[in-house]
Amino acid sequence: MKKLKRSSRLVEMTQYLLARPHTLISLTAFADRYQSAKSSISEDLAIIKEVFEEEGIGELHTLAGAAGGVKYMPMMRESLALEIMKEICKKLEQPDRVLPGGYLYMTDMLGQPDLLADVGRMFATAFADRKIDVIMTVETKGIPLAYATAACLNIPVVIVRRDNKVTEGSAVSINYVSGSTKRIQTMSLARRALKEQSRVLIIDDFMKAGGTIQGMMDLLYEFKATVAGVGVFVESGEVEMEERLLEDYISLAKLTAVDMKTKQTTIIPGNYFTS
Questions:
Q1: How do the pLDDT tens digits run along the chain, 275 residues long?
Q2: Alpha carbon distances (Å) from 9 to 50, 61, 72
Q3: Residue pair 251/235 in contact by the 8 Å Cβ criterion
Q4: Which residue numbers delimit the Bacterial purine repressor N-terminal domain (predicted)?
Q5: CA gap 250, 125 in Å, rounded
Q6: pTM here?
Q7: What is the C-alpha to C-alpha distance for residues 206 and 193, in angstroms, rounded to an integer?
Q8: According to CATH, what is the number of the domain 6-74?
Q9: Contact 228, 199 (CB under 8 A)
Q10: At what angle do helices 6-18 and 38-54 cross, to 10 degrees?
């Protein structure tokens, strides 16, 4: 790359960091890339760090030593996250979103890049202190949420299937009981999709009693993997506590009431904002 003016270098360096979250980049790599002294690079990084933190874009962590460098971690201030989630809750309360069984139609919202980017940063912030190797979700509506979170954490995604696909080779399949319908269902994961003893963050779009998530946990046991955390976009608050199959999870929104006759719902920010 040709030598840039400082203003141009700051813009390019910022973009470089934003495109590589959770990646350690050495000062030497930056110095070589921009043909600048390490002292100048350090001053530039200090400016970027200040702006990132003041504007709530994220944090820039500096690691000292010969093998050190900087690492950009996407974050979102809780005040901003709460403001965004309140707007999302209002949209989710639209009467035409109520489906039989107390579910919500969310497919259109889960196709909006700006919403997904915000939710991905929220989950990345919520689990920033966890050591995570991979994100797991079950097809289909949880997939965009999982990839949005993975983009912020810079880790891969594995997708649990409802049935085994020939194109994925041998797989591990289990039966699980749906917490809401009490029906026995099947889920499977290709053996090559997940390394044994991985630390896994489970992301799901909607949780009632938690049967699907418990099924994914049981599936992870077959891979000798560890559940590093569970993130849910919307949880149902109409499930009795004794019927809930898991307790340790983070939700961004909570469906607290639904009237099937009037199609009226009440949705509030989830336990991420109250715990």
A1: 778 899 999 999 999 999 999 999 999 999 999 999 999 999 999 999 999 999 999 999 988 876 679 999 999 999 999 999 999 999 999 999 988 877 789 999 999 999 999 999 999 999 999 999 999 999 989 999 999 999 999 999 999 998 777 677 899 999 988 755 678 889 999 999 999 999 999 999 999 889 999 999 999 999 999 999 999 999 988 766 557 778 899 999 999 988 888 888 999 999 999 97
A2: 16, 19, 17
A3: yes
A4: 5-74
A5: 11
A6: 0.91
A7: 24
A8: 1.10.10.10
A9: yes
A10: 60
Q: What is the rounded CA–CA span in Å between residue 137 and residue 160?
A: 6
Domain ranges across the chain: 6-74, 78-273
State whether CATH 2.40.50.100 applies to domain 78-273.
no
Token digits for 126? 């919520």
Reading the block at residue 51, the tokens are 């702006």
Q: Please, are residues 188 and 222 in contact by the beta-carbon 8 Å criterion?
A: no
The residue with tokens 């995570």 is 132
Whole-angstrom distance, CA of residue 176 vs CA of residue 181: 11
